[in-house]
């Protein structure tokens, strides 16, 4: 009888297909302010970065998902054009508060005066931060947009208004790419890092979600290819979750959002991608301090 024992090769023992993130042409640093715009995935990663000491401003007008809303947000922050009564919109579904189509409903206030005071104070602060900022990080969530039929423009948030007020459409890859090129142009000498959120939009169905994400991926590739001299790069967050972490244990209970473990893993891969070695000691100090603070809160 053949007593040989078959052994698995190193390749067969691998449980995932690692994504090579490389080293970014755009670096992040503890010494330079960052602006992060985009989906709730940007909120999660940005929150982790703030916790360890980065000077990061994350979604000052609220979470945004599509390229046009992110572009509109950046234009407003760059220009610091104040919000006026014309921007005030009542939140629907009997909410009773006032907001704007530029903002997430967490910015809604009981009266127009209160909303405008808060919105313009936040805008002024965001503009000041942007003036000092050296790096912009944009996380794209979806290519689907809602255009308000009366205003004729894409909104960042529907504010619980009835569906009949809007026309929903999916941007073409060329239109997405044009919006991203405008973002790079507004950023000017600042570095820009694009990423596509790995969070799946289940309302579109599996195929619709893939079409949307594919549109965003094609658009980023097009935009970066047409701006080869710009300080812009792409971080493959979507690919890391799809290929390296392709197991439902890395998802939250809704099976669409990444779990806390997955978010932490992507955050660490992003640090490998964009943080220069000279800042590694500061990162380790910040993480130790964050753990101490978390322990104190739990005590």
**Strands, total number:** 10
Q: Which structural category fits the helices and strands?
A: alpha/beta
Report the C-alpha radius of gyration, rounded.
Answer: 21 Å
- Low-pLDDT stretches are none
The secondary-structure element order is: HEHEHEEHEEEEHEHEHHH
Number of helical regions: 9
Average pLDDT, rounded to a whole number, is 90
Shape: globular
Main sheet characteristics = 5 strands, parallel
Helix content: 40-55%
Structure description:
The protein has 299 residues and is of the alpha/beta class. The protein contains nine helices and ten strands. The chain has helices at residues 10-13, 40-51, 67-79, 112-132, 173-187, 205-225, 237-244, 260-274, 280-298; strands at 34-38, 56-58, 89-90, 98-99, 135-140, 144-148, 153-154, 166-170, 191-196, 232-235. The strands form three sheets. The chain has a five-stranded parallel sheet, sandwiched between helices. It has a three-stranded antiparallel sheet with strand order 7-6-8, with no helix packed on it. Strands 3-4 form a two-stranded antiparallel sheet. Strand 6 and strand 7 (153-154) form a beta hairpin. It is globular. It starts with 9 loop residues before the first helix and ends with a helix. The mean pLDDT is 90.
């Amino acid at each position: 009888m053949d007593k040989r024992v078959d052994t698995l090769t190193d390749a067969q023992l691998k449980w995932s297909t690692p994504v090579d993130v490389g080293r970014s042409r755009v670096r992040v640093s503890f010494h330079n302010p960052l602006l992060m715009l985009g989906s709730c995935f940007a909120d999660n990663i940005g929150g982790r970065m703030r916790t360890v000491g980065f000077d990061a401003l994350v979604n000052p007008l609220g979470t945004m998902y599509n390229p046009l809303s992110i572009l509109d947000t950046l234009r407003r922050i760059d220009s610091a054009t104040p919000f006026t009564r014309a921007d005030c919109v009542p939140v629907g579904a009997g909410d009773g508060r006032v907001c704007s189509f530029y903002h997430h409903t967490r910015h809604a206030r009981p009266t127009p005066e209160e909303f405008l005071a808060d919105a313009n104070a936040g805008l002024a602060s965001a503009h000041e931060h942007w003036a000092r900022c050296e790096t912009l990080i944009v996380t794209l969530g979806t290519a689907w947009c809602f255009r308000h039929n009366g205003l004729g423009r894409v909104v960042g948030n529907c504010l619980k208004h009835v569906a009949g007020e809007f026309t929903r459409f999916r941007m073409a890859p060329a239109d997405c790419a044009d919006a991203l090129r405008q973002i790079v142009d507004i950023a000017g000498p600042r570095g820009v890092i694009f990423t596509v959120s790995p969070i799946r939009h289940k309302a579109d169905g599996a195929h619709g979600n893939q079409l949307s994400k594919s549109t965003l991926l094609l658009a980023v590739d097009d935009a970066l290819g047409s701006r080869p001299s710009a300080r812009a790069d792409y971080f493959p967050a979507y690919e890391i979750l799809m290929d390296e972490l392709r197991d439902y244990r890395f998802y939250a209970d809704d099976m669409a959002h990444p779990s806390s473990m997955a978010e932490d893993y992507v955050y660490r891969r992003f640090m490998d991608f964009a943080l220069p070695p000279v800042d590694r000691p500061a990162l380790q100090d910040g993480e130790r301090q964050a753990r101490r603070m978390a322990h104190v809160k739990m005590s």
